[in-house]
Structures are given as structure tokens and as C-alpha cells.
Design brief:
Blueprint (H helix, E strand, L loop, with lengths): L4 H4 L6 E5 L6 H12 L2 E4 L6 H9 L5 H21 L3 E4 L5 H10 L4 E6 L2 H11 L5 H7 L10 E4 L5 H21 L2
Helix pairs in contact: 2-8, 4-5
């Protein structure tokens, strides 16, 4: 399937949340989808609390309380952004299933998309970007990630932006075809 924005726009959700491991390419994919498909793109890491930033700097995992406090901020931020932007795509690791479920419960119609990539590629990306989330830190916190058993998964293992866009739009084309065939 090749990317064709004119045939897929009507099947795309108004609200999308990209989540996944550090280095999987949530920001890259979010910026790409935003630029090509007209979404307002927002990186929820912008709203990390001072405690979370200190944990990253110290190389320690987040506590459950840190995550709970942060996802209260996340649900409100999405509400605020939805009022300003008819098409919104947000990105954040969201390692815990209960936090993803919390966001969905506050925002009916939101579509969660797991951005995933092969382990080697994730490690290479983390080493190349050299930011606060090092490959070592990402490896340490990886055990905290609760991979979904099902749902929408965007594999980010190619360099071709058109292929990534095709995969993204295909997620919703496939789900809309299934919905119409079961009606």
C-alpha cells in the first residue's frame, strides 16, 4: 500500500496518542504525521514534572506516584489542546497500561498507537541522539514498559517517510474496513 493523503484523510481519527519505548521514534513519527496530515503535534514530555526530570538526570526509574501525578497533568493538557486543535496528535512513552487506559477513559475517541522498532535500532537511535535519555537509562527502565497485547502498532523500522505514513494511515483504513464489513 502506498501513501495517498487524499484517500485516507476521512478515515483518520481526530485525536491520536503515540506511545512506546524511548528511542522507538514517537517524536519522529509524530512530526512526520503532523506535517503531512495536518495534525497539531504536541510532545507531552514538555509537561514532565520537576521530580521526573530529576529522576531522569539521576538515572532512576519513575515512582508510581510520579506517574500518577504526571498523567493527571496529561489528561488535562489533552483537554486543553483539543479545544484549540481539531486534529491533535500527542506523544509520550506511557509505559503503564493503566495510565494509557486512564487517558482513553478521559478522552473517548482517542486512538492509542504503539510506536515500536527493533531493539538494535532503538539502541542505535538513543546513542546517536545523546540526550537525557541515554541508551543505558532506557535499558534500565525498559522492564517497566507494559506492551499491549493488541491494538494499533506502528512499526518504525524504515528510513522512508512515505512508508511510515502509509503504515500510519493503513492502521485506520484497516480498522474502518473491519468496522464496515461487520456492520
Amino acid at each position: 500500500m502506498s501513501f495517498n493523503p487524499s484517500t485516507s484523510q476521512d478515515q483518520l481519527p481526530a485525536l491520536v496518542f503515540f506511545f512506546g519505548l524511548a528511542g522507538a521514534g514517537k517524536t519522529y513519527c509524530g512530526n512526520l504525521v503532523s506535517a503531512q496530515l495536518g495534525y497539531h503535534c504536541y510532545d507531552l514530555d514538555t509537561d514532565c514534572t520537576p521530580e521526573m526530570r530529576a529522576a531522569i538526570a539521576a538515572g532512576t526509574p519513575f515512582t508510581e506516584q510520579m506517574r500518577d501525578d504526571f498523567f493527571a497533568i496529561v489528561t488535562q493538557r489533552i483537554s486543553d489542546l483539543k479545544q484549540k486543535h481539531p486534529k491533535l496528535l500527542v506523544m509520550q512513552a506511557a509505559y503503564k497500561a493503566r495510565h494509557r487506559a486512564l487517558v482513553v477513559s478521559h478522552h473517548p475517541g482517542l486512538r492509542m498507537v504503539w510506536v515500536d522498532a527493533p531493539d538494535e535500532l532503538i539502541t542505535d537511535r538513543l546513542q546517536a541522539r545523546g540526550d537525557a535519555v541515554s541508551a543505558q537509562y532506557a535499558s534500565r527502565i525498559r522492564a517497566n514498559f507494559e506492551a499491549p497485547a493488541s491494538g494499533l502498532r506502528l512499526l518504525n523500522d524504515v528510513a522512508d517517510p512515505k512508508e511510515i505514513l502509509s503504515r500510519f494511515t493503513g492502521l485506520f483504513w484497516a480498522s474502518s474496513k473491519q468496522s464496515s464489513s461487520s456492520a
